[in-house]
Amino acid sequence: MTAKPSYPCHCARRGCRDSFCAVPPSASFRVKMSSSLIFSATEDDFLQSVIEASHIQPVLVDFWADWCAPCHALAPVLEKVAHAFAGAVRLAKVEVDDNMRLAGRYSLKGFPTVILFSRGEERGRFSGAQPEQFVRSFIEGCLA
Questions:
Q1: Residue positions annotated with a catalytic role
Q2: Distances from the Cα of 117 to the Cαs of 14, 89, 124, in angstroms?
Q3: What is the pLDDT of residues 32-58, one digit of tens each?
Q4: Phi first, then psi: what are they for 8, rounded to 5°?
């Protein structure tokens, strides 16, 4: 029986507080917390970190779930696009299992759902895993 490899925890999974975890560093759903462009948001801080912050800089919100395969596929696309926009847009990650009231507030029907907020208001949304060019066009269209 071989031991499972363990890595310093970086995955930001719901409730993961392990000093080492079994999620490899290449896992697509990781949240790059070292970046000020990408951050986690919760019900407790959503008003301030997303709605109020969107008056200064647009915020793209990724409503995702750990059990959702399309969420895992979309995560690296959103991260890449957020970095490509070089600070013009920030990316907030909301894990829906821990923040069900937010999912209800925005009438989310499936995951992932991505909503762009600007000037305190929803400017657009899409659902499902999408290619990079779609996400870029979506952001550009919402901000035009």
A1: 68, 71
A2: 24, 10, 8
A3: 444 589 999 999 999 999 999 999 999
A4: -55, 135
